[in-house]
Amino acid sequence: MAQLSTQHAQLLQHGDFLQLTLSNPDSLPSSQFTLPNGTTVSILDTGVICFEPVLCESDTKDIVLSCGVHGNETAPIEICAELVKDLLTGQLQLKHRLLVLFGNPAAINASTREITENLNRLFSGHHSMGAGLINAERKRAKALEEYVSRFYQEVRVTNVVPRNRYLYDLHTAIRGSRFEKFAVYPFLHNKPWQKAQFEFLQACDVTTVLLMQTPASTFSYYASNTHGADAFTIELGKVQPFGRNDMQRFAKARAALRQLVSEAAVSTVHFDEQQFQLYQVYRAINKQTQEFKLHFADDVENFTAYPQGTLLATDGDIEYRVEREGEAIIFPNAKVAIGQRAMLMVVPTTVAHNIA
Ligand SMILES: [Zn+2]
Prior knowledge:
Blueprint: H1 6-13, H2 17-23, E1 31-34, E2 40-45, E3 48-52, E4 61-67, H3 74-88, E5 97-102, H4 105-110, H5 136-153, E6 164-173, E7 182-185, H6 195-203, E8 208-211, H7 219-227, E9 230-238, H8 251-262, E10 277-286, E11 293-294, E12 311-315, E13 318-321, E14 328-330, E15 341-348
Parallel strand pairs: 4-5, 4-6, 6-9, 7-8, 8-10
Antiparallel strand pairs: 1-2, 2-3, 3-5, 7-9, 10-15, 11-12, 12-13, 14-15
Zinc ion (ZN) binds near residues 70, 73 and 171.
């Protein structure tokens, strides 16, 4: 690992890893140093920083926090940047191994969701399928997978097995939501859902959870399926420009994440399904032609439900209507590329039959 340049060292002395990342959006030479409290800090790439505290024997957690996978989703970037700053300056004492990822620095600089391709559709090897590694997002997805793999596999303690892996990929939604915050629980291939994870989500003020039933090309499914991590996509609210987020709205998530990395356990309340809104996917609607059109207003909120028979979308000659009672829309986006998902339809569900 290289020495830090003077300019880089100065930024890091103030804990400003986000600024260092955004000034070097394409790459950053790797470097390593030790904080006065003994924590080893490894900068592995632009937007990729790993913290390894002097571990106590009982510690078993390896935590990945990611933000900025979509460049314009600013609130999680602000939350993670602050957390990194407080760790670098010694204001927050780290308890567990932690990898923090700022997913798409070039898109953050451009204040756009993506530069050429949706980064959160490129994981689990999708980056190399089809046309292959033809753009920056595809290369970044591959690199992020490698950093996560190394982080989970190269643990320098040998006495604690098995270790527990976590990945929380933090987002904000494009549109408003009937339930402001919600999490996507990736498909577990029929393994049980984890009570402790619902409890952690509730501590983050997230009580709406969408349970997926199929594999996906998202970061959270990748961590869950490839590494056995407890992994989630967490939507913390609606997209706002930098500095325009009402951080009060994120206070619980911010506090729970800080507690997660700095304490042995997060304060939670016992899981009670009645306090959650649980949904499962009923069907995905993919855009098949350029004529794809949504038949509801642009600002309709996620989880809005319409009466059975309501026309939701047309795609050339195809009509999509509400088929089931309680069926609700989520992530509608008519502007996606042909062949991509334009909207998900979800229905209420329960986890009682398969929870551990
Ligand atoms: Zn997002």
